[in-house]
Design goal:
By secondary structure, the chain is mainly α. It has one domain. It contains three helices and no strands. Helix 1 packs across helix 2 and helix 1 runs antiparallel to helix 3.
Length: about 80
Amino acid sequence: MSKQGLGVFFIGVSACLYISKYLSAAIFGSNLKSWDEDMFQAMLSYVGPNLTFWSTASLIVGLIYLVLGEIESKKKK
């Protein structure tokens, strides 16, 4: 797999992790009768910061691979 492909893969993983944080909070609070911003923030706090950390780390790794792949392909030409 090329570095560009690996970079796109890591960016996709980052997007899935980012989405899963908010989806988990929404599923956690799906049994509530009424929602507001404070309630959703409380549900996000139950999910924790781990998904945000790994999403950001995956995004950074993906961008690094993407940039390195582009630099290598320009050097070959």
